[in-house]
Amino acid sequence: MTTEISHIVKSEEPARYHKPPFYKPIHREVEVFEHAYKNKLPILLKGPTGTGKTRFVEFMADKLNQNVITVSCHEETSSTDLIGRYIIKGAETIWVDGPLTNAIKEGAILYLDEIAEARPDVVVAIHSLTDHRKELYIDKLGVTVKAHPDFMLVASFNPGYQKGFKELKPSTRQRFVAISFQYPSEKDETEILMAETGLAQDTAKKLVNIANKIRNLTELGLTETVSTRLLVDAALLINSGLPKRLSVKVAIVAPLTDDLEITQALTDLCDLMI
Ligand code: ADP
User: What positions does the domain CbbQ/NirQ/NorQ C-terminal occupy (predicted)?
Assistant: First the structure.
């Protein structure tokens, strides 16, 4: 399985044409990030999927005029994927830097999305970058690379209290400044939906009410509940003309469960609320 990497390069557009990514601050996370950046402290974003962690990193990178390299970690992501590897090109064997090495050399923000999913050697690889050393030892090359002063490490982690989620060791967590992400308040989430998709306020409110209702149905034992992302998807479908009930069914109910009875119960509930 290859590891997905994306590189968002800072905008070179003149400020008056530049449209920053939309992000609605929920608490004081912008301020915390700015101070962590100033003090070169790594940040851990904790919270369920779809609560705006990735969007927040994109927003902050734009605000700080930094490039961001994102690595979507999965169970096979290894330190080699991050640091780099030798590859064979024609008759030659050449070294190719991985995203972590690129980020520390160019001074970008490295965002390790879902760090707890990665192999344990990934955490070991970033140790020397999360303390005063701020350097990376590349054992295959026998060299130590000092991090560019603008380099910053950001990781995300879904604490998931249900089984099946991977935990992050306390000793690793203590290397980061941590910011918690939760589902936004009714008012904030309605505003996010409207700003993100252009959906009318009354429908946006109804979607948020559906989300909150389902989030409170803990007895259903859903592994993951309704995220803002699912609401955004439903809003986009509604806006493009798909009937509301069908939009809610395919964008909110169906992604949550495969259980036929729960699907039916949730569909009935949503049909009444939309
Ligand atoms: P995560 O990284 O936590 O899984 P994302 O950042 O991908 O979640 O968020 C999913 C979607 O939810 C975003 O694409 C955006 O549309 C929306 N979203 C969630 N929270 C916010 C927020 N505070 N401001 C703006 N958009 C948000």
Answer: 189-272
* 73 close to 115: Cβ distance less than 8 angstroms: yes
Ligand 1 center from residue 148 Cα (angstroms):
29
Confidence (pTM): 0.89
How do residues 165-178 score in pLDDT, each as one tens digit?
577 888 888 889 99
Residue closest by Cα to atom 21 of ligand 1: 52
State if residue 117 touches ligand 1 by the CB under 6 angstroms criterion: no
Q: How far is the CA of 231 from the centre of ligand 1 (A)?
A: 10
Torsion sign across C-alpha atoms 125, 44, 33, 61: positive
Taking the centre of ligand 1 as the mean of its atom positions, its distance from the CA of residue 146, in whole angstroms, is 33
Q: Which CATH code is given to the segment(s) 28-180?
A: 3.40.50.300
- Ligand 1 close to Cβ of residue 232 (< 6 A): yes
